[in-house]
């Protein structure tokens, strides 16, 4: 499958896989901006893509997120086939950085920087789905159990 990608900035990096068997294509930050009101950092990739009709692009954090003091604010991003804007990642900081008596940070927070691989893109097909209202649903082993009902 071919996916059209447009560089919105000459510094943008075309998505790549580290290994042939990888599911996700790494995306690189070319900009980093602090949201003024909330404790969010927004990273731009400088890329726009054309997800083929009948498919969706999912934006996931990379496993390196476990080494950072931030988390992807919306957990998983969705790029619909009609979206043509820049691929952006918004991260929420999840650490309290120690400060001295003057309010200055006593250490540098461990955040992503411009040039880092900040996330990954996975493109998947979307099945045609139609919902049918019924009076009864079939039985299942699990039934209505939820939120930890499997005992683990």
Provide a compact summary of the structure.
The chain is 0% helix and 32% strand. The chain is mostly beta strands and 152 residues long.
Structural class by sheet pairing and helices: mainly beta
Number of domains: 1
CATH topology description: Deoxyuridine 5'-Triphosphate Nucleotidohydrolase, Chain A
For this structure, what is the CATH homologous superfamily?
Answer: Deoxyuridine triphosphatase (dUTPase)
Mean pLDDT: 87
What is the overall silhouette? globular
Q: Which architecture would the CATH scheme give at its second level?
A: Distorted Sandwich
Element string (H = helix, E = strand): EEEEEEEEEE
Please report the total strand number as a whole number: 10
Multimeric organization:
single chain
What would CATH call the class? Mainly Beta
| Largest sheet: number of strands, sense, barrel closure | 4 strands, antiparallel
Q: Calculate the terminal CA-CA distance, rounded to whole Å.
A: 39 Å
Radius of gyration of CA atoms, rounded to a whole number: 20 Å
Helix content: under 10%
Helices, by number, come to: 0
% residues in beta strands? 25-35%
Low-pLDDT ranges: none
**In which order are the strands of the major sheet placed?**
2-10-6-8
Care to describe what's here?
The chain has 152 residues and is mainly β. It has a single domain (4-125), classed as Deoxyuridine triphosphatase (dUTPase) (Deoxyuridine 5'-Triphosphate Nucleotidohydrolase, Chain A, Distorted Sandwich). Helix content is 0%, strand content 32%. It contains no helices and ten strands. A four-stranded antiparallel β-sheet has the order 2-10-6-8, with no helix packed on it. A four-stranded antiparallel β-sheet has the order 3-4-9-7, with no helix packed on it. β3 and β4 form a beta hairpin. It is globular. 17% of the residues are buried. The mean pLDDT is 87.
